[in-house]
Design brief:
With 508 residues, the protein is mainly α. It is 67% helix and 4% strand. Among the domains are: 70 residues, no CATH class; 254 residues, no CATH class. Its main location: membrane. InterPro entries: C4_dicarb_anaerob_car-like (IPR018385), DASS-Related_Transporters (IPR051679). It is a multi-pass membrane protein.
Length: 508
């Protein structure tokens, strides 16, 4: 009698998914025609504009409004002079086919290495964060704090989910807190587990809520502000519509999370990640015993307060201090060192707990580098500009409502090719925004289509942050897709309705 045990299919890991996508990206550089727009940058040292065109000498132009007008770049001069726009801007009407630059098999491993080097700042931040978590775990502060929290929230566990979702939504809409959100998982995962929830709830309250907030950005400088500037309009145009979408999106997220939380509370086996719970618990709860009663001493309270301060400091630095990952890593490291001094741990325990905590996030860091490698292949293969040029041709010469929905679809697709919100803004807005003039609608509606379309894709795009998040929490990609698809549907329905209404009201 044969073995009746059925072989179960294991969905590929994040590494395998990105490796397959990297091979596809290399193949695309052979199939998609290479092309390039001329790019405009501002040289602050010499106070001049530099126009870079493929295989042509750079053109130096005076940094004046007249130069922008001659290039048909409808962006305020001050946006360059004040450093609001730092990345190269695609110049409308300059697209040209260039010689094909296909990548080879050896470029697969090269791009993986170079992508990892480019992601070094993010990786250092993640290592420092992991080390910090390891040290605080060793002090017993998390254990004691979780026990106190569990006692105080009995019967009202969902309030924690609601509060975290609200804060992440606010962070998303105001400062685009996404990459920085990886810092919240190591501390909040044990909290959600102690409340009786699973890994998906944690991703929902952090990544899903933050991304929905970023999709409906109101004053986020890394998406809607830079996109509006690149479109040649004030970012305040259309802000009321984006705020209305934000409220609708937040309601969808909270209702959906409430439904899911209630379902898994009633039956833990209803969890989408029930089969993976052991691996998940071993990773995040191995040093935490929620049944053990540990005294929540003053020292442990101070350590947790310092830990929380580090996050507020990070958000302040990103919003007002011009910080990026090196500065964030340095601030976390400084607070970690202070915690080490007051922890009363031995020197050996401190070093071992820090290195062990950092080592647990090596896999997550490498995924970031691999995703950057995909972007490098597409960039060096010079096919991103071609895709943008084809997309702009598709969207031109159609009625306003069809035009704006086509823009939404185009930005969904471009979100996969260019997962950076600021990168896509400076690449696409100077090309796409003028098309709005040809169909008689305001440019701010195109900015909304960019925001909503790109982020509908970034909930799923393997080249974005989602695989990093899933790797941290041991969530298979297919189970995440099952969970998030209803929210993507909500986002696209809200976006489509708001876009069509705006076109009907503002068409001239």
């Amino acid at each position: 009698m044969g073995n009746s045990k059925k072989k179960t299919f294991n969905f590929p890991s994040a590494f395998s998914i990105l490796f397959i996508i990297l091979i596809i990206a290399v193949g695309l550089t052979w199939l998609v025609p290479a092309g390039s727009y001329s790019k405009l940058t501002y040289n602050s040292a010499d106070n001049v504009f530099v126009v870079k065109t493929y295989q042509q000498p750079d053109k130096i132009l005076p940094a004046t409004k007249a130069s922008l007008d001659n290039l048909n770049v409808k962006i305020e001069l001050n946006n360059f002079l004040e450093g609001t726009i730092k990345k190269p801007i695609a110049i409308p009407g300059t697209y040209q086919r260039v010689e094909q630059n296909p990548k080879s098999l050896q470029d697969i491993t090269k791009s993986m290495v170079h992508g990892t080097i480019e992601a070094a700042d993010v990786m250092v931040f993640i290592f420092v964060l992991g080390g910090m978590i390891g040290v605080i775990n060793k002090t017993g502060s998390f254990n004691a704090g979780l026990g106190a929290l569990a006692n105080r929230t009995k019967g009202n566990e969902f309030f924690i989910v609601f509060a975290v979702s609200f804060l992440m939504m606010v962070g998303g809409t105001t400062c685009g807190i996404e990459e920085e959100a990886v810092a919240f998982y190591p501390i909040l995962v044990p909290v959600f587990v102690a409340l009786g929830y699973d890994a998906i709830v944690c991703v929902g309250a952090i990544f899903l809520a933050a991304s929905m907030g970023t999709a409906f950005s109101t004053i986020n400088p890394f998406s809607v502000v830079i996109a509006s500037n690149a479109a040649g309009i004030p970012f305040t145009e259309g802000i009321a519509w984006r705020f209305g979408g934000l409220i609708a999106g937040f309601i969808c997220v909270v209702v959906y999370l409430y439904w899911y939380c209630k379902k898994i509370k009633a039956d833990p086996k209803a969890s989408y990640v029930y089969d993976d719970r052991e691996e998940f618990l071993n990773k995040y709860m191995k040093n935490i015993d929620t049944n053990a009663i540990q005294e929540f001493t003053t020292r442990r309270k101070i350590i947790l307060v310092l830990f929380c301060i580090s996050f507020f400091l990070m958000v302040w630095g990103v919003m007002f201090g011009g910080w990026w990952f090196p500065e964030m890593a340095a601030s976390f490291l400084a607070i970690t060192i202070f915690i080490m001094f007051i922890s009363k741990l031995s020197e050996k325990d401190i070093v071992n707990s820090f290195t062990e905590g950092a080592s647990e996030l090596v896999g997550v860091s490498l995924i970031i580098g691999l995703a950057r490698g995909v972007n490098l292949v597409l960039e060096q293969g010079m096919i991103s500009d071609t895709i943008l040029a084809y997309a702009s041709d598709l969207a031109s010469g159609v009625p306003g409502s069809v035009f704006i929905l086509a823009q939404l679809v185009i930005f969904i697709f471009l979100g996969l090719i260019v997962p950076s919100s600021s990168g896509l803004a400076v690449l696409a807005m100077p090309i796409m925004a003028p098309l709005a003039d040809t169909v008689g609608i305001p440019r701010h509606i195109v900015v909304s289509a960019y925001n909503w379309g790109q982020y509908a894709m970034l909930f799923l795009a393997p080249t974005g942050l989602v695989l990093v998040t899933l790797q941290m929490l041991n969530i298979p990609f297919n189970k995440w897709v099952r969970f998030v698809m209803p929210m993507i549907g909500c986002l696209l329905v809200i976006a489509s309705i708001l876009l069509v209404i705006q076109v009907s009201l503002y068409s001239v």
